[in-house]
Amino acid sequence: MTGSRYLLTHDRHSVLVDCGLFQGVKNIRSRNWKPFPVDARDVSAVVLTHAHLDHSGYLPRFMKEGFRGAVWATPATRELAAILLEDSAHLQEEDARHANRHGYSKHHPAEPLYTADDAQRVMKQFRSTGFGEPVQVGPFTIRFSRAGHILGAACVRVECAGRSITFSGDVGRPQDLVMLPPEPLRASDWLVLESTYGDRLHPSEDAAEQLAAIVNRTVARGGTVLLPSFAVGRAQVLMHLLASLMDARRIPDLPVFLDSPMAIDVTGVFRHFNADHKLDAHALQRLDERVTCTRKPEQSEQLSSSRYPKVILAGAGMLNGGRILHHLLAFGADARSTLVITGYQAEGTRGDALLKGARSLRMFGREVPIDCEVTQLDGLSAHADYAEMLAWLKPIGQAPRQVFVTHGEPVAADMLRQHLARELGWSACVPEQGDEFELD
Question: Could you say which DSSP state residue 21 is in?
């Protein structure tokens, strides 16, 4: 699911499509420390499908290993990457400081994977181009097409020596609440296809209706609604839903706080790229009127100490760090309050544990009881499910020679492979990490 990296080579030239960070449980994260399988100095360029860290988060480390080429991305991806990479670097530095304080690292002293200075330096290698505009890197001609999913997200088409290969990146949904739908794909000799929801269909329930019911019953109890949310995309969708529900009088007017400096910055990027999403000027203004942004730590602490009914959106979306943990420490034992899981939870994360029935969490060195209501808000995924994916692919008509199904858990990837074979008649395989293919 994480650490997306695909290397294309032709003669002496090579292009890396995505340069992602491995995330999740410790044995997966440890892959970030392994040497890159090729010399970073030999890679001509990196091409990013989008800014999420599982697609971009290894870039500062790759630069430290000697990569000196250009990083090609859409303008919105470039803006988002600057925010996410610096935040990731601060987390790497904090993890190293924590390991040194408590002495649990096998390396002495513990070092961060990369620093904030590294993140700022790699941004100087970024170059941006719009959707549909060709970029030439040696023998490779590269074009981006809109993928939906998040701001700037793109499918990457690469043409070389009379052949073509398309990398889907993460594919958005046709009826997303905020993002524009993915553009139709052109026929391609080969296709590398994500499979996050390859074995699932999204629920048909109305997410707005679900959220309204959650807020109303929590407010009736006098509790606080905690919404752990990813800074890019999910936070903006939730703010838009809450503002719309209050405007429609489907929930009471109550304080809503965005307690995430990174999500606040990302919301600013939405204003810069208003042609790339569905929120018009009025909708964006409504967010300003309905949502209070809290940047300072002392503001966040005041939210945790207050007991009036409210909604708090804070990172991180999988409860693996961030301000949401401090709010959960304050409200997790309060039976009046509600914690709402709003997105995919990787195996081994606190969010995953709660969905599996855990009633306590290890936080800040101790077990914290969770007596508040824990519920899940379905239908907000930014990934197409397998039916939406097939509907998006079917108009291509001409089958690729081969589809490489990647970026999904094993069952999801294999189920999508089967759907492609049965319903479209396409040849598909699920590669293992490190597999190599000759495209001729």
Answer: P
